[in-house]
Fold:
Amino acid sequence: MTAGGHGFLSALPPGPRDQLLGFAHDVSFPVGRRIFDEGGAADRFWIIRSGRIALDVQEPGRGETVVETLGEGELLGWSWLFDPYRWHLGARTRSAVEAYEFDAQQVREEIDEDPVFGLAITRCVAAVAIGRRLRAARTRLLDLYGPPGGRAVAAGGEAP
Structure:
């Protein structure tokens, strides 16, 4: 298997990237497929090779609300890395998807056994996946609840 030129895999150093890809299995999902639900066991994760996946939350009376859409090269799921290993969001394909799938337990065991691999994976998940997800959530919240006219108010109460 080869790594793509961008995204999560390209953010990993070559050694840990090759080590991680040693655990990968190719999977395909059709359009509209529910991959996981909020609160479910986070026992796998994926790196998207092609296609689009929407991350969502269930809102009472509204159903699924899309928080972010992921595409090629992106990591789907990081809850597998942190106890209690439960999904914080749900995921559904927006198009047909090809991805690398990983068994979370196997990767966590390798993280515990190899500190260099563990540090590389943890840093990459934190920087690439969690950081991006937080920025996307902030932008989405500003879109939904920001002041009219598109000018967000800074934390001190003044417009930037």
